[in-house]
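If I may wish for something, please walk me through the protein I am sending here so I can picture the backbone:
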Amino acid sequence: MECLRPLPKPGTLGDAANGAAKAWRETGALPDDLSLLRSFLFFEQRRYRHFDGEPKGRSRAYIDALLTAIAELSGGTVPDPPDPLP
């Protein structure tokens, strides 16, 4: 099971996600932390939900890179819940 590191503090996810997107545009590099990648993908989804549109061009390429990195780090699976559902 993956070791979860603390996520950015509330109110700073936007800064962290924007910084990761900028770094990816400049270097093509993404963090190798699954929780961070999932958080950044969540942030991008919310961004485009508020834009009321689809990402295009480099923005879409960044989201595709996040999805690819998540699939590689997770092995393409999401673990079952730790406790049985009621």
Q: What stands out?
A: The chain has a mean pLDDT of 83. The longest helix spans residues 34-51. The chain is about 60% helix and 0% strand.
